[in-house]
Design a protein that fits this description.
The chain has 4 helices and 24 strands. It is an alpha+beta fold and 390 residues long. It folds into 2 domains: 68 residues, no CATH class; 232 residues, Sandwich (Jelly Rolls). The strands form 5 sheets. The chain has a 10-stranded mixed β-sheet. Helix 1 runs antiparallel to helix 2 and helix 3 crosses helix 4. It is globular. The N terminus is likely disordered.
């Protein structure tokens, strides 16, 4: 895959009291950023010309660049902005030229496209109009991340970026119909279907409307990344459809606001990818899609030196969670449970046998999806049942 180097757009760094100068709920910081940009423009004595006008400086202060910008600082962290388009997405989790370099503690504001590359826009559109499968933003290089470390990605904010979501059924892809991996003799193959979901930002719902009747119902939204992961080990390049040890297309509702995702670092810089936004999804992703949406996203990256893990993990204030991704489903479950036993033993001090017994009584299993090349299960335990962390 050819990856062009992206040009830098330099903007004046400014101290702002909010974490974002363009996204939701932070509009109070925007006038200050515009004022600072105008002041910098005047103080620098830049002559107005046809190539650069005051209007252009104001547009840059709104931080909507084609690609990457120098950071805006708040009182603690630097905030970087990256705009994802169909011209710069990737379709592989792989070692590739980074689009942006971040340092531990930096915050990334970006957007993602839906799994169809925002190609389906109205009733009557078909899957042939999709730009690709699961376009990815990135990769983002995190300074100091090396093999043997853990890359931590804290999800600070996710907002559905549009007025409609899309659901689709594609013949040969689903949990209870014939597929390449699970052939079934069907009396009549299911036909392709596309559903459009009206997004209501005011009450945080998406409306399902049946294609073959007048039935409709509102579904609460829970935005999350369907795809989030890092470059695989050993120089591998894996399709954005695949979930595995590097994360990838995990379709995990756990990849949502308030949770931190941990990944094994396989290559220098980690190389983080994001994409495949979901507004809501049922357990198992039965028919092969969620409510597919573009997202506006804010994440914070950090590196845990010397903490070596084999599979992705999630954590929040209340629980720790581990991922298993494989076929058959019972092996994915075994991976997730084994990783959770190891985590409890290492960080909370219980013997592996005691942790095994405890999970038998209070552990939880969440079937994320059973439609992709690997199935994904997340095992979890609430922290209230664990000893104090070592």
């Amino acid at each position: 895959m050819s990856i062009d180097r992206k040009r830098m757009i330099k903007v004046q760094e400014a101290k702002v009291p909010t974490l974002s100068c363009r996204n939701r709920g932070t509009r109070m910081g925007q006038p200050l950023v515009i004022f600072t940009a105008i002041l910098s423009f005047l103080c620098a004595g830049i002559a107005q010309s046809s190539s650069q006008t005051l209007h252009a400086v104001i547009e840059r202060a709104n931080v909507e660049p084609d690609i990457e910008s120098m950071p805006v600082e708040d009182s603690t962290h630097k905030v970087f902005h990256y705009t994802t388009t169909n011209d710069n997405v990737k379709y592989l989790f792989a070692t590739a030229e980074p689009v942006l370099h971040l340092k531990p503690g930096d915050i990334l504001d970006t957007n993602t496209l839906d799994c169809f590359g925002n190609g389906l826009k109205k009733p009557g559109d078909t899957l042939r109009m999709a730009k690709g499968d699961n376009p990815l933003a990135g990769p983002f290089y995190v300074e100091g991340a090396e093999p043997g470390d853990t890359l931590a990605v804290k999800i600070l904010d996710l907002q559905v970026d549009g007025e409609y979501g899309v659901g689709a059924f594609s013949p040969g892809f689903g949990s209870i119909n014939s597929s390449h991996y699970t052939p079934v003799l069907e009396a009549k193959p299911l036909k392709e279907g596309v559903w459009f979901y009206k997004i209501n930002h005011d009450d945080n719902t998406a409306t399902y409307k049946a294609n073959d009747s007048d039935f409709s119902v509102k579904i609460p939204m829970h935005p999350f990344f369907g795809c989030i992961g890092v470059a695989p080990a050993n120089g591998e390049a894996r399709s954005s459809i695949v979930p595995a040890e590097f994360g990838g297309n995990m379709d995990s509702p756990e990849a949502s606001v308030g949770n931190t995702v941990y990944f094994p670092v396989n290559v220098k810089g980690g190389l983080l990818y994001l994409g495949d936004g979901h507004a809501a999804m049922g357990d198992g992703e039965a028919a092969g899609s969620a409510i597919e949406v573009p997202l506006k996203a804010r994440v914070q990256v950090s590196v845990i030196k010397g903490r070596e893990i084999d599979w992705p993990q999630f954590e929040n204030d209340d629980a720790i969670m581990t991922v298993g991704a494989y076929r058959p489903l019972e092996d994915a479950t075994r991976i997730a449970l084994t990783e959770l036993v190891h985590w409890i033993h290492r960080d909370y001090g219980l013997s592996e046998l005691d942790a095994y017994e405890l999970l038998s009584k209070v552990g939880k299993i969440h079937l994320n999806e059973m439609v992709d090349p690997n199935y994904v299960v997340v095992a979890s335990v609430e922290k209230k049942y664990l000893p104090k962390k070592k």
